[in-house]
Amino acid sequence: MNEQRLFAALGRFVARRRRWVVIAAVAFAVFAGVWGTGVFGSLTGGAGFDDPKSDSVAADRILAGPLGRHAPDVVVLYDTGARGVDDPSVAASIRKAVDAVPRTGVAEIRTFWDTGDPAFVSRDRHATYVTVRFASSDDHERVKALKKIEPAFAVPGTKVRFGGVTAMTEQVNARAGRDVARAESVSMPLLTVLLVVVFGSLVAASLPLAVGVVVALGSFAALRVVTLVTDVSTFSVNVVTILGLGLAIDYGLLMVTRFRDELREDGADLDGAVARTVATAGRTVAVSGLLVAVSFAGLTVFPSRFLSSMGYAGAAVVAFAVAGSLTLLPALLRFAGHRVNALRVPLPRLRNPGERWYRTAHLVMRRPLLSTIGLVAVLLALGAPFLGVNWARPGDWVLPSGADARVVTRELGSRFAADPAKQITAVVEGAADRPALDAYARRLADVPGVRGAAVTGTSGDQARISLGYAFDPMSRQAVRTVNDLRATSPPPHTRALFTGMPASRVDIVHMIGVRVPWMLAFVALVTFAVLFGAFGSVVLPVKALLLNLLSLSAAFGAIKLVFQDGWLSGVLGFTPVGAVDADFPVLIVAIAFGLAVDYEVFLLARIREERARTTDPAEAIASAVRRTSTVITSAALLMVVVVAGFLASGIVFMQVIGVGLILAVIVDATVVRGLLVPAVMRLLGEWAWWAPGRRAPRAPARPALPERPPVRP
């Protein structure tokens, strides 16, 4: 095969010039560690979940003009304790602090003493709030402005908390950075230990880890390059860099395992062993990496900055992980040579785990139809709860219950007459007189769920109507209210646009629902083409696509049960709100689907090799399962360790990623690859390798690999 010769030539080239390859890799790692970490200053800030083409964003753009915004960006809550707001010394201290707040970038600060509005004081008279509205309409600029003025609100002896959308964004950003750093500090030692357990050798274990570190550093450089051509969300760094580390270790595991196999068979020619490793495992890594990158690229069909930037950044980092695995790792393998098995660690090892998978594969292949039906039914049943999902968007609910933004929302709902941050804004465009606008506001106030509506500003032929509400913006009631508001006819010859957390939530969910089929179609089409090119079959790509979707079903069912219904919420330490963020299951689809194809390629490539060694199809499948079981299960375990740190995060959507990916990887590496794939392959028989224009082949030609040197007598 021409491509195998190409990969073999690459392996020989790297082996012979290994010193220069390693020197270049070290130099690049140093460069990436210095220049690449500048990506943190190049990120656009915030999350960028909104659809820039939605009605809510269009309304926000209008409100950024002369009409202006009315809803506060920050609610500063003062809990005055036993003294109470009516105590003159308390009032004087709060007013003094507020008066000293710098006004740069601040459009308006409102207090009880400025407005005389009793709604600013709690029913028990022991708490009050201050609202802040910034001049900028950009969430990144508002977060920076909040950081500058936050310390000025402090009042000795009074508990001060910050709530509202801008405060929530700032708190999520800060906590996400800390959580990821903590996750990496825990996962790296665990990865090292697990690699030693898997390989039983310190030298072999160090090689994937070394490549993983270089790829992790290179991920920063890749992300910074992406920022030069497009906006990148803050959270891209949190997810993509960890994923790059996990993939590099996965690929390294496959490559090192194959190299050790080559040495066991005949290790006289080290350059040839490296070449054969790159021609087989390296080719598999290239195909797998291409498919994982395609899964990420599918995210670019979404207009939101969060998903699209995750697509660009993810694809770039995966490409870098593949490049490191095909260049630096073979060079390190050649340097190690027979010493790859050195520094063995005497650890207890499982007895023949591959043999167990071998016997299990033969067991399910005895009755392939029954096994397939049973396994598919189980996976569909596990995914059935997801049919009742209630979609949401990120809000203060993603933070721990003790976070300032959560506490402020809870306190405003229980101790005050109304939450000033719970506003929906209607922007009316077109000529309409004040009586018509007031009449329209009254009609909006009659919509179920709305607590009052009033015209709060006009500018030319534009008007602003502010509406209050008390429901949870992530509830099903919020969706009904927004839909009813948009169905209410505005004054003649005008149009109304609605914004605010509930309206934004509806628009985000709509955007994802419309674009998901396009994403799936793109990923399916390219995956089909790549797998067809790799294996020459039209049946295998279809099988892979269907089984990969099944492997996601159990994970998605668990996501709904855990994060919407509250199962294990006490263990994970979050308070369920009866909804699941719509963005992160899409992200999980991209990552988990790519990893599932990753393991599929590992297994299919080995099945093809085994078919060249035996005329028994069942034996070829079972032998491939036996040979890849250690690699796939070890790779899955290592990936689980990489993403398990997300479970310890205090941010709910990070926990969603952790739960979703862990379950998807475990189910795919065990139930799907170990049981369902053998049953389906046996059921399909030789037709699994069929393509139009030719009959089902009996066995492929033996791959054209670099020949091993003859054994001398």
TrEMBL record:
Bilayer-crossing regions: 20-43, 190-223, 235-254, 285-306, 312-333, 369-392, 518-538, 545-564, 584-607, 628-647, 653-676
SSD domain segment(s): 203-335
Keywords assigned by UniProt, alphabetized: Cell membrane, Membrane, Transmembrane, Transmembrane helix
Topology in membrane: Multi-pass membrane protein
PANTHER family for this protein: MEMBRANE PROTEIN MJ1562-RELATED, MEMBRANE PROTEIN SCO6666-RELATED
Family statement drawn from the similarity comment of this UniProt entry: Belongs to the resistance-nodulation-cell division (RND) (TC 2.A.6) family. MmpL subfamily.
Protein known as: MMPL family transporter
